[in-house]
Description:
Strand order of the largest sheet: 1-2-3-6-7
Radius of gyration: 16 Å
Shape: globular
Amino acid sequence: MTIRSILIHPDPRLKTHCDPVTAVDDDLRVLAADMLETMYHAPGIGLAAPQVGVMRRMLVMDCVKDDGVPARPLVLINPEITWESEAHSTYEEGCLSIPEQYADVERPSEVEVSWMDLEGVAQAERFTGLWATCVQHEIDHLDGKLFIDYLKPLRRQMITRKMQKLKRERARA
């Protein structure tokens, strides 16, 4: 497994709608393993393929935070929200592509998602709480949307300027 570089906003790939995965093969399985390794190393609870420069509709997530609870890594290929609750929740969200920036985002508190797993088998699950927020955040990435797109323009511009400065500093290092 390889830890991959995570793209930092602003990068045009992070604003691009991703193509569906057409075949589950060994290359895709390697990508999934690399993405999980990258996510855990970051550390984060979710990572979408475009964040590592792969413009395909795939994401990984694991929202287990308790040390006594076994990890639950999920790989979702071509995920689609099929139902969302009328009730909403607000979580302070962050993003591995927008490091050290956080903001409250309101989303449906429950969602049902269908996807294909690494064996090519159709799956579906209802997610609640942090899992629901995470899966919606990651699916947004597949549609070229970032959590800062939910913020007021001034706040979004301020965060974007901070990320541009961070990218310049990293380029010099």
